[in-house]
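idk why but the lab printer keeps eating my pages so im just putting this in chat instead. protein + S-adenosylmethionine:
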Amino acid sequence: MVEDSYKQRGLRNLLVKNLAKKGISDSNVLQAIGKVPRHVFFDNALLSHAYEDKAFPIGEGQTISQPFTVAFQTEKLEIKVGDKVLEIGTGSGYQACVLLELGAKLFTIEYQRKLYEKTSVFLPQMGYKPYFVHGDGSKGLASKAPFDKIIVTAGAPIIPTALFEQLNENGILIIPVGDRDKQKMIKVVKRNGKMIKEELADFAFVPLLGEQGWANC
Ligand code: SAM
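predcted complex ->
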């Protein structure tokens, strides 16, 4: 049972209002953020910061994304109940919970074994049950493809071809692409088998590693 105090619910409501002020307008996305207790992903030392609109460390040199980033990427995915969604970069599992709250049928891949082991035990304890995979998400998940939506939560040097191939017709891929430490968010739609690209805002993610990502150094 997750502890979710009156104060934590209040701080979460303030965060939701703040995200709306920053331009997140999809009420389903805002409601989903309002439901997921972000504080449970934080160690005691950082607990008081859980509802700040900032990224924080989660171990293994990785981060739980900033709530605005989670809301922005989620909004751009236009999730409908029952959508088959692939997430690359499970990390803490926070983004996964938001997608599940929206009714996604979620497959999520994490590269770092320790994070995969921790999150694949923790999320089901909270009642969130995506299909967890440990591996290189830059290659997608061919055995479960195609997907209606794909979200990449780490910065990629290119749009991995495998991800586009594993997208359904009219499917949406949202992915930060650019340098190792600064990227442009790209929305890709597959129309008549062709890649329609839209460049969105600037973000700073940890690097996407693996075969179609950055070298691990
Ligand atoms: N979605 C996460 C959350 O809500 O906490 C944010 C995760 S963090 C910004 C990015 C994650 O991508 C890290 O956990 C990192 O280990 C993972 N990652 C990096 N390269 C990957 C790859 N090739 N396949 C799968 N996961 C990868």
